[in-house]
Specification:
Elements (H helix, E strand, L loop, with lengths): L1 E4 L2 H10 L5 E4 L11 H6 L7 E3 L5 E3 L1 H11 L10 H29 L13 H22 L12 H15 L9 H11 L2 H4 L1
Parallel strand pairs: 1-2
Antiparallel strand pairs: 3-4
């Protein structure tokens, strides 16, 4: 059985493929610094969750790599595309959502707010953090413009790009980075995605 530290976006990915019962989610005490212990870093030197542990004892880290594994390993609707054009478009939009929203909000949270507290936030640069908040806000506006023409971020089909952006907005809520009221397409898309069974669960 594959094991992955608790990470909601990855439960969405497993749920979309219908394989949640084949994955065991293991909580990791991030606030307690468990992800920075020698034992955890032996599995993932990035000292970050998620980290997928396979049946042979090997490990796969990084969200995109785990998603690629889940998508290729199990039957069901593809999250990363089938044709070359689909795969390229989904990868492009997923990276835009990841870098411009999820990671940007994370940088703001860890650098320009108290973050996880002084024991874990051992280095902060508020100027960089606040700049990344601007990046996140600009990305929200960009995603809103994409959704004015498409049902989903990479076209007409739900994909990993939608999961990443949805997770980014959830992190934005946590970090108190609000979606502007004017971004009606993004707000409507978020409400729609929230009703999907794999996410609502």
């Amino acid at each position: 059985m594959s094991r992955v530290p608790e990470s909601r976006p990855h439960s969405h990915r497993a749920g979309r493929k219908g394989v949640s019962d084949k994955v065991e989610f293991i909580p990791v005490d991030v606030m307690g610094g468990e992800h920075r212990t020698p034992e955890f870093k032996a599995k993932n030197p990035d000292a970050a969750v998620p980290c997928l542990e396979l049946e042979d004892g090997s490990h796969i880290a990084q969200c995109n790599a785990i998603t690629e594994y889940i998508d290729a390993m199990f039957d069901g609707p593809s999250l990363t595309g089938v044709t070359a054009q689909e795969r390229a478009r989904i990868s492009m939009m997923n990276l835009r959502a990841e870098n411009g929203l999820l990671n940007a909000v994370g940088t703001y949270f860890h650098h320009a707010t108290p973050g996880l507290g002084p024991d874990l936030e051992t280095y902060q640069c508020a100027e960089w953090g606040n700049k990344q908040k601007e990046v996140a806000e600009n990305t929200m506006a960009y995603l809103d413009s994409v959704l004015a023409e498409n049902d989903y971020l990479a076209g007409d089909t739900f994909s990993v790009a939608d999961i990443t952006a949805f997770a980014g907005l959830a992190f934005a809520d946590f970090a108190k980075v609000e979606i502007p009221e004017s971004l009606t397409n993004l707000r409507a898309w978020r409400a729609k995605i929230a009703t999907r069974p794999s996410i609502a669960a």
